[in-house]
Amino acid sequence: MKKVLVVAFSLFALFLLVGCTNENNEDIKVGLIVSAAGANDNGYNQFAIEGLNQAKDEFGIQIQVVNTANDVPGSLETLGEEGFDLVFSLEYNFGALITDDGSGQSIAEKYPDTTFVVFNAFANTDENGDKIHDNVIEVLFNVNEGSFLAGALAVLVNENHELLFTDEDYHFTPTSTSRAVGFVGGTQSDGISVFGYGFAQGVNYIATELNVDYDLYETYSAGFGASTENYNVINSYYTSGANFVFAAAGGVSTNMKNAAAANGKLAIDVDANQDASVPGSVLTSVLKNTNVAIYDIVEQFVEDKLESGKHVFYDLASGATGITDLTTIQGFVSTEAAAQTKWNEIKAKIAELVADISDGTIDVIDAQAGEVLDYSTLTHVNKAN
Predict the structure, then answer these.
(1) I need a labelling partner for 350 at 20 to 30 A (CA). Which of 25, 132, 251, 286 fits?
(2) CA-CA distances (angstroms) from residue 371 to 193, 198, 240, 301, 340?
(3) Three-state secondary structure call for residue 142
């Protein structure tokens, strides 16, 4: 009887503890400012909102999602003024938050009791590598790792494209003629180079294993908007023999996917799962699963475990980055037994690479951390332009 009473009391105490925790969480206010692409972008912003809603359901917090195309500083100011405890900003706009909002003071300084979270940049780190504000957290995704997988996948598929893709709509350049891939970056910056470097390393890794050589066409000056000029550049990569082009350049991906479809070849997209945006023309997408980061940071905040003033990296092992599950493009792979067997072998190889990167067996250059790729170390990749 005594044991029953002890267990019953323990369960009651646990119930009270959980109840109190959820009740206390009702006072926690978390805001999310989405990027200019809007809440319904089928990816980056939408995933973040899903992560925030999951946190709301599980922790009982108050949330507010702010759509702001032009006034990020104003939105940050409003949320700070309204006493929000935690504010995420997905927009690449940090000046007012970190440096000066026009009043001679930064928003981070004006609202020291609010923890601000920014993405994809060391915005809160000075030139000496020191943090600027104690109440700002930088979140970065190890997209170098996902980009490595994309490069490796491109070579694995290219070496077997005649077996895998038999539909007459595909017009791959035979490997007997050339082996080539392309990369299109919006600008020469660490935030873009991180994709290009990882991609080139992935191409080189598999090319080395197979003892074949690949040409790499690349540009880092495309900007971030679709244009006739960008289409022509990407189209030239395809017509020069590249069967796969990877773009990390915002709206330029539209040019890439259209050029891929026109040439009967394949594109690789970024940030969100864009595989079905032009079905059959996108091999995969390198992901930033913002839902994972948002939920994780809210959970740490609620549990009083969040260290402010630091940068947080989300890698393959976290589930916050990687490539898609290839379900969409798999629907275009030949149903012949040999093709299906080879496709499964390729997916198994990618899974092996994920494990090797996650445990440190494979080290991928990270431009976000200031690392620079020495192209001369890529023994089986030649820069073609």
Answers:
(1) 251
(2) 10, 11, 30, 31, 39
(3) coil
